[in-house]
Amino acid sequence: MRRLRPKLRSVWVFHVDAGACNGCDIEVLDVLTPFYDVERFGIKLVPTPRQADALLVTGSVNRQAVIGLKRVYEAMPPKPRIVVAIGSCAIAGGIFYDSLSVYGGVDKVLPVHLYIPGCPPRPEAILFGLGQLLGIVNKKVRAEEYIVKEPIKDRGYRGLFTERIYKDVRYFLTKYVGYYDRDEILENVCEVLRESRSIEEVEHRLIAKASSVRDPRLREVYLVLSGFVVEQLRGRSRT
Amino acid sequence: MSYEIPHRWIVTFRYPLEPLPPPKELRGRPIIDPNLCIGCGACVRACPPNAITEEIDISKGIKVVKIFYGRCIFCGRCWEVCPEGAIRLSNEFELATPNKDDLIQYVVLPLHKCVNCGKPTEFTERQVVRVLTMIQELPIERREELRSKILLCRECKASFLSKPMELRGSEVYEKVKA
C-alpha cells in the first residue's frame, strides 16, 4: 500500500446548492457513501460554513442564489477559502448558459480553485477532483490543438459502395438502432457492398449475415437493412 | 475491482489510488478525430448547450472547430449527427482540473479557395471533396452544373451564373473542369 503524503489534510467541506437540478447534489452525497467513502482522506461534510475550508458549489449561479453564495463565502475562515465548482452548470452555466436569470459559472462571482466537469459528474470524477485538491493524483486533461493539413481519406469506394449509399445506410441506421450500435453494423454493410458484384448478391449476403448472428435484435436489423439497401440500389439503377 | 458488490467486509473502492475501469457504455469526454473531421458544423448545430462552436477566419483561410468540455452535458447528440463518424464519446471521465483552459480542444481546418479568384470561401477543402464524390452518380449535365457552383466563391458564382450561357467565359469553365 502506497503511503499518502497529501498537501492538505482534513479538508472540511461545505456544500452549497446555487440553483442546481439536484443531480450534482446527489452525486456529492454518493461520494460520502461507504462505496466511495471520501472521509478516508479526511474530507468531512460540515453543517456550517464557519468550520469549512472548502466550498463545493453546484448549479448554475442564479441571481437569487448569488446573495447566499457570497454570504457563505464571507462566513468562511479567511484561509484557505477553497472553492470547487462541480458540474457543467457551475463551471460555465451548462445548458442554461444564456438564460437571463443566470450568471453562468461560479468563477463570475468567486475565485475557483478546481473545476469538475460532468452532467452530473460521476462519484469517481468528484473523488478524482478532490484527490487533486489534496495532491494525491495529478490532472490528466490538457488543451489540445490539431492543425489539419492532409486531405480527407478515401472510404474505399469499390463495386456497389458509393458515398450516397453510405450516407443513406448511415441515416437509416441512426433512426433504426441509434448511434451506439450503428458504427459496427455500418462497417459490416460497407464491407458487403464493396465485395459483392450484383444487387442479388448484396441481398443474399446480408440475409446470410442475419442468419449467422445470434442476437435476435441484430438479426432483425440485418433483415430490415437488406430490404432497404436493395430498394435503394434498385431505385438508383433505374434512374 | 468490479462494480459487483464484493462479498467481504470492506466494500469501499480504493479508487483514486487504484484505477477503477468505467463501464463500456459510459458517455465520457467527446473527442473529435482530426483525421476524419470535415468541418461541416453538424455537431455545432446539434449541441444543446453550444459547447461546440465554429469560427471562420476568412483572412487566414481557416475554420476552427472548438469544443469546451466545461459546458458539455455528455448527451451524445454530436455523435449521433456527425456524418463522418469523426466525433465520438470516449470513456474518459477524469476531467477535473484547476485551470479552465485545459478543457478545450481545437481542430483547425483549411478553407477551400475559389478556383477563379483564389480567395477563401466559407466552406472547407474537405467538404468540397466530399460533395464532389457524392455527385459522381448524377447525370453528366447536372454534375457539371453543380461542379461550377461548388468550386467558385460567392462573388464569382454570382457574376458567372447571372450571364447567359453563351457569354460565360470559357476560361472559367476550363478552370472548373481541371
Name some characteristics of this structure.
heterodimer, A: 239 residues, alpha/beta, 2 domains, B: 178 residues, alpha+beta, Alpha-Beta Plaits, four-stranded antiparallel β-sheet, two-stranded antiparallel ribbon
> Order of strands across the widest beta sheet of chain A?
2-1-3-4-5
Q: What is the helix content of chain A?
A: 40-55%
The residue-averaged pLDDT of chain B reads 86
CATH architecture descriptor text of the largest domain in chain B = 2-Layer Sandwich
Per CATH, the class of the largest domain in chain A reads Alpha Beta
Total helical elements of chain A: 8
Describe the structure.
The complex is a heterodimer of chains A (239) and B (178). Helices cover 44% and strands 10% of the residues of chain A. Chain A is of the alpha/beta class. Chain A folds into two domains: 12-134, Rossmann fold; 163-238. In chain A, strands 2-1-3-4-5 form a five-stranded parallel β-sheet, with helices on both faces. In chain A, helix 2 (65-75) links the parallel strand 3 and strand 4 (82-86). The radius of gyration of chain A is 27 Å and the shape is elongated. Chain A starts with 11 loop residues before the first strand and ends with a helix. The model of chain A has no long low-confidence stretch (mean pLDDT 90). By secondary structure, chain B is α+β, with helices and mostly antiparallel strands. Chain B folds into two domains: 21-111, Alpha-Beta Plaits; 114-178, no CATH class. Helix content of chain B is 26%, strand content 19%. In chain B, the strands form two sheets. A four-stranded antiparallel β-sheet of chain B has the order 2-3-5-6. In chain B, strands 1-4 form a two-stranded antiparallel ribbon. The radius of gyration of chain B is 23 Å and the shape is elongated. The termini of chain B are far apart. The mean pLDDT of chain B is 86. The chains are: A alpha/beta (239), B alpha+beta (178). Chains A and B meet through helix 3, strand 5, helix 4, strand 6 and helix 5 of A and strand 5 and helix 3 of B. Strand 6 (144-147) of chain A pairs parallel with strand 5 of chain B, so a sheet runs across the interface.
